[in-house]
């Protein structure tokens, strides 16, 4: 399991999504929404352009952090993550990635320290560019299209339309509660480690 020590190096906290107003309220952009809320919570402005990302830097709970939103579009997220990792010499165990997940009910949170992408193209890209799959990720459930599940044959085009669809009013209500909880999960990872966070949120 990973150990988080103060002042050893930057913590790189990345939300996945697609840049631009067109995508801002898409289900696929939950990672961006979470990271923006987290930055606001600590008064960090995500206003610098660096390594194909928009970033903000600051200190959170005694740790030097980089908060990042890749501008590469979702399917090339790994390019941005790896460039930031290299530029700031971030250790892989000090990376946290937040992303949407079709296979979790809307608003459910799961934390993983390792694993495959489960078909998420943004995570596939991160794994490919890092060359490893053992980095922390916070999965935020967006559910699947109504009347479907993992075993239901749903056309790729329908899935794309769903994830690139805007949050419904019901979704908005759900995520108003969930997005701050993702920030709390990040805090717990920073201060007590991944296992403590998994114990709390993977129930």
Mean pLDDT: 92
Our estimate of the beta-strand percent is: 15-25%
Query: In the residues, how many domains can be counted?
Result: 1
- Overall radius of gyration: 16 Å
Find the count of extended strands (DSSP E, 2+ residues).
7
Residues in helix, %: 25-40%
CATH superfamily: Peptidyl-tRNA hydrolase
Give a brief rundown of this model.
The chain is an alpha/beta fold. It has helices spanning 30-41, 77-88, 121-130, 156-163, 169-192, 194-201; strands at residues 11-15, 48-50, 53-60, 63-70, 95-101, 109-112, 136-141. It contains six helices and seven strands, in the order E-H-E-E-E-H-E-E-H-E-H-H-H.
Walkthrough of the structure:
The chain has helices spanning 30-41, 77-88, 121-130, 156-163, 169-192, 194-201, and strands spanning 11-15, 48-50, 53-60, 63-70, 95-101, 109-112, 136-141. The protein is α/β, with parallel strands linked by helices. It has a single domain, classed as Peptidyl-tRNA hydrolase (Rossmann fold), CATH 3.40.50.1470. A 7-stranded mixed beta sheet has the order 2-3-4-1-5-7-6, with helices on both faces. Strand 2 (48-50) and strand 3 form a beta hairpin. Helix 2 (77-88) packs parallel to helix 3. The two termini are 19 Å apart. The relative contact order is 0.19. The mean pLDDT is 92.
């Amino acid at each position: 399991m990973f150990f988080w020590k103060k002042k050893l190096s930057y913590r790189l906290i990345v939300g996945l999504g697609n840049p631009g107003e067109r995508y801002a309220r898409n289900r696929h952009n939950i990672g961006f929404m979470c990271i923006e809320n987290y930055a606001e919570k600590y008064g960090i402005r995500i206003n610098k352009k660096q390594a194909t990302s928009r970033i903000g830097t600051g200190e959170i709970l005694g740790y030097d952090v980089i908060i990042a939103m890749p501008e590469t579009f979702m399917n090339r997220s790994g390019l941005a993550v790896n460039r930031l990792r290299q530029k700031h010499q971030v250790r892989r165990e000090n990376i946290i990635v937040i992303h949407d997940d079709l296979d979790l009910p809307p608003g459910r949170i799961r934390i993983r320290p390792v694993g495959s992408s489960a078909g998420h193209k943004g995570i596939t890209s991160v794994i490919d560019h890092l060359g490893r799959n053992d980095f922390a990720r916070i999965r935020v459930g967006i559910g699947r299209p109504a009347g479907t599940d993992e075993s239901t044959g749903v056309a790729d085009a329908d899935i794309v339309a769903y994830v690139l669809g805007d949050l419904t009013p019901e979704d908005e209500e759900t995520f108003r509660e969930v997005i701050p909880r993702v920030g709390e999960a990040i805090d717990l990872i920073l201060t007590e480690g991944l296992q403590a966070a998994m114990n709390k949120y993977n129930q």
